[in-house]
Amino acid sequence: MDRCEECGFGYASLGAGDVPERLGGFAGRYAEALAAVPDVRRRPAPDVWSALEYACHFRDVLRVQAERLDLALRVDAPEFVPMGREELVVSAAYNAQDPAAVLGTLDANAALLAAAFGALGPRELDRVGLYPWPEPVERTLLWLGRHTVHEGEHHLMDIRRMN
Fold first, then answer.
1. What average pLDDT does this structure show over 9-20?
2. Residue 1's pLDDT band (cuts 50, 70, 90)
3. Which candidate, 47, 61, 68, places its Cα nearest to that of 155?
4. Residue range 21-58, pLDDT digits in tens
5. Which terminus of the chain has fewer CB atoms gathered within 10 Å of its CB, N or C?
6. Is the dihedral of CA 121, 126, 130, 133 positive or negative?
7. What is the predicted pLDDT for the residue at 133?
8. 72, 128 Cβ separation under 8 angstroms
9. pLDDT at 81 over 80
């Protein structure tokens, strides 16, 4: 994936030096987006997540991507385990979580991942791992950072649709 047709995100348009700043800026934007949704727990359709579920998902994406980044810096060409995105919505009871706590953890996770990407040089950004979605394919750590920014932007769009 190099471009998302639904949200318009272009991976190549995001430079390596922009990844940390973009990751670090998500917390306030998610807080603002959730505050604009009348009922953060309401699902607009049975197969569409609520605004809170999207925020929980992105919080967990940030955590999982940090784990993947750490693994790829320690192990040559690791295989990243799928995060179980659909299962986590239920098993972690996303819609029952406290929105303020979710936003606090999202902020912390974003700051940690932004700092981790900010510390990488070109050699580290070129390291690869086998990314599991949508099908297993070898991806660089730069792609991992760009993809995480895409996830954040795309799910902000999903939340804003609920206003």
1. 96
2. low
3. 61
4. 999 999 999 999 999 999 999 999 999 999 999 999 99
5. C
6. positive
7. 84
8. yes
9. yes
Q: Whole-angstrom Cα distance, residue 46 to residue 37?
A: 18
Q: How far apart are CA 36 and CA 40, in angstroms?
A: 9
b/e for 61-99, b at 16 or more Cβ within 10 A?
bbbbbbebbeebeeeeebebeebeeeebbeeeebbebeb
Element holding 125 (H helix, E strand): helix 122-125
Token pair for residue 23? 């990751």
137: tokens are 């394919």
Around Cβ 112, how many Cβ atoms within 10 Å? Answer: 16
Candidates 66, 43, 63; CA nearest to 158 is: 43
Amino acid at 54: Y
What is the value of pTM for the model shown?
0.96
pLDDT at 77: 93
